[in-house]
Amino acid sequence: MYKKFEMELAGRPLRVDVGRVGKQANGAVLMHYGDTVVLSTATASEKPREGIDFFPLSVEYNERLYSVGKIPGGFQKREGKASEKAVLTDRVIDRPMRPLFPKDYRNDVTLESLVMSVDQDCSPELTAMLGSAIATSISDIPFDGPIATTQVGLVDDEFVFNPTAEQKANSDMELTVASTKEKVIMIEAGANEVPEDKMIEAIYAAHAMNGTVIDFIDTIVAECGKPKHAYESCEIPAELFAEIKKIVPEEEMEVAVFTDEKQVREENIRSIKDRLQEAFAENEEWLKVLDEAVYQYQKKTVRKMILKDHKRPDGRQIDEIRPLAAETDLLPRVHGSAMFTRGQTQICTVTTLAPLSEAQRLDGLDEAETSKRYMHQYNFPSYSVGETRPSRGPGRREIGHGALAEKAIIPVLPSESEFPYAIRAVSETFESNGSTSQASVCASSMSLMASGVPIKSAVAGISAGLVTGETENDYIVLTDIQGLEDFFGDMDFKVAGTHKGITAIQMDIKIHGLTRPIVEEAIRNTKKARTFILDEVMNKCIAEPRPEVGQYAPKIIQMEIDPAKIGEVVGQRGKTINTLIERCEVKIDINDEGRVSICGVNKEDMEEAKRLISIIVTDYEAGQVLEGTVVSIKDFGAFIEFAPGKEGMVHISKISKERIDKVEDVLTLGDHVKVVCLGKDKMGRMSFSIKDVK
């Protein structure tokens, strides 16, 4: 039966239609936020997927260009591969939802959101996040929700909830917070060096707003929610654990995992598995779940060591950072390069500079963002973790890590007028054992400085982890988690920023939320670690941007012209500007405000292009002397080109002080001559004289 629920959210109407569409899904809602409309559904398979040891959750955020009145480009005229923004939205929906499903649930679950109409002041991403939470909460799928999500901006030092397009354009922060009624469960942020205390205040202002939305969702669930279905538990038999501990005592497992060498630890575990497989060779049911049992045994061992004994697998103190190293200029012919190493995590970032015309064009639902000049891409090859698999292009994780580093760096980039370049930074993962995304922030900051990009400040990133006990106050926050602590811990809290403040946050957790003391401690600890990395490692490697771009980078000079003169520089069908480009061997970009960027390798050629453009856009008056080339000879005189597309005429009587019968007696095509401007003739053409040049 169709039911409609409404509330006001951040000054705009939010409406949820239940039972109107998608009735065969386990849960479906048609969300209306302002004029934004998103269909969110939650479906689950009837039976668990066999042979897996994880929860198979898929999140799909599907953009339709009809939602903003566009037809897709290309031959197919239909949407193809998901945009990067859609992939990032998938991840933001996945991260707070996943921990709230039962850990032993193995049924396939798909959360799908279809964007059908977009009001630029009412975020379709936020609408989809809320829709996914509501659809799952009213479904019969086991889920420990509901949750709600709020976006926060910072305009004129005031918080703005679920900001409009105009507010986003003027905001110093783009924060997304998901939470249950009691705890924060996901944080995603980009910020213009926002202080830690201000960020914490914003997080909990969003959490309070989420509480009002959850109250609204509770009314929907109470009226429309289905009873949760039963499912087959995939828990490891207690008897198997008991037998494993007889063969491999807890002390032996501690020794096996207590090493900072990933390869040594993996070999130790491999040896233990071999013994257990031999011992349980007659029990096929136990062999099927042995890998998961050993994984859980490791997890319990590591968590006990950290929480009870304050021991970390690699022997570090709780707040100690792994050994660090940094260097620049690894690659001789690129525009800039830097490598950052933290323990067994190693990233090399390469920077490439290009004219603004090579900025990435975007074709999505956000009408305010049609291109971006800074592109950060992250690659994670299998050899970085000692594995072998074919490369199939970037997955969602790679896209997410690249976007996080991009978000961290953007606040310190110079403006286009200060530095008129498109910038591409590519982070190559050489070795991985935890927090490669934050290592890529460090490497990228140094690489940009090495390439001569005048960033405002260096940016560093670090990740904090968490291990919790039985009670709310029984926990330990870890600084700089390695892979094992990430796998077996409860949190990966990534924070990047400068000395001044935070530029990016991404928080993933595996439990049902964080208390405020944990969030505050994680932010304080990452601030301390970030400061150490900046002062003791990065700044000692490269303290400030180089004064100019490198030898092999393109050089760019800028000039301003009257926007009304742009057509004269471009010429009919681009003839004039193409002539300039060919003659001077440069690239030329002109924006609508009349800013001209001239890009080239040879400075003399670039200056010549600038000189010619200045000539083209100047309105010459009588008495000014110019140089030009004879491009046409007529009976009555000659035409002199003094810049591409700009010509004037010298009458035969103005060529020589002596009388001449033919123009050809004095001038030949291609001659370079000096002329003085006489003004414009009756036909509006520039009139020149050669004989009156002084």
TrEMBL record:
Pfam families: KH_1, PNPase, RNase_PH, RNase_PH_C, S1. It catalyses: RNA(n+1) + phosphate = RNA(n) + a ribonucleoside 5'-diphosphate. Residues 623-691 form the S1 motif domain. Mg(2+) binds at D486, D492. InterPro entries: ExoRNase_PH_dom1, ExoRNase_PH_dom2, ExoRNase_PH_dom2_sf, KH_dom, KH_dom_type_1, KH_dom_type_1_sf, NA-bd_OB-fold, PNPase. Keywords: Cytoplasm, Magnesium, Metal-binding, Nucleotidyltransferase, RNA-binding, Transferase. Involved in mRNA degradation. Catalyzes the phosphorolysis of single-stranded polyribonucleotides processively in the 3'- to 5'-direction. This is Polyribonucleotide nucleotidyltransferase. Belongs to the polyribonucleotide nucleotidyltransferase family. The keyword Metal-binding applies. Its cofactor is Mg(2+). Its EC number is 2.7.7.8. GO terms for molecular function: polyribonucleotide nucleotidyltransferase activity. It is found in: Cytoplasm. The lineage of its organism: Bacteria, Bacillati, Bacillota, Clostridia, Lachnospirales. Coiled coil: none annotated.
